[in-house]
Amino acid sequence: MQAHEIAVHPPTVRIDDPVSKAVQLMVVNRLPGLVVVDDDDRPVAVLPGTQVLRLTIPESYQDDPALVRTVDEIHADLFWHGPGKLTVGDCLPTPVAKPATVAPDATLLEVATVMANKRSPLIAVVDRSGRLTGAVTLERLLTSLAVAGPSD
């Protein structure tokens, strides 16, 4: 199997899009992250959902996890309202790491290697000109590996 055979056609975001849009797209499409593209639909980054989540947690709690235990349940559930006016660009590290990409004809082993090395739950599939043609999610990769594996 090749990357293009298991790739999904995910929605994308741009650096100046609000985080709230990214979160909605991840939830509605059940994605572990999103591909951030430029105006030419070339990937500039992969935004994992965990990075968005990290930015919503107040810094004081990130620095001292024991402090989290002091917050009651009602108030603990409200931390998510923090992103406010954050943009996708605010969620990306500086400098922005090169996105994890593979060619459409990449094998499942190639996709798995890139995904593991980059620790990314989403790998962009790009054509020869560098334009996004799809993405392989961790779930799709594992499902394909399980189905393609030897039978018991």
From TrEMBL:
Q: Which InterPro entries match?
A: CBS_dom, CBS_dom_sf, Diverse_CBS-Domain
Molecular function as annotated in GO: kinase activity
Where the record annotates domain CBS, the positions are 1-65, 93-152
Q: What is the lineage of its organism?
A: Bacteria, Bacillati, Actinomycetota, Actinomycetes, Mycobacteriales
Q: What is this protein called?
A: Histidine kinase
Record has ATP-binding as a keyword: no
**Which residue windows are transmembrane per the record?**
none
Entry-linked Pfam families: CBS
Query: Which domain of life does the UniProt lineage start with?
Result: Bacteria
Q: Which UniProt keywords are present, listed alphabetically?
A: CBS domain, Kinase, Transferase
Where does the UniProt annotation place the signal sequence? none
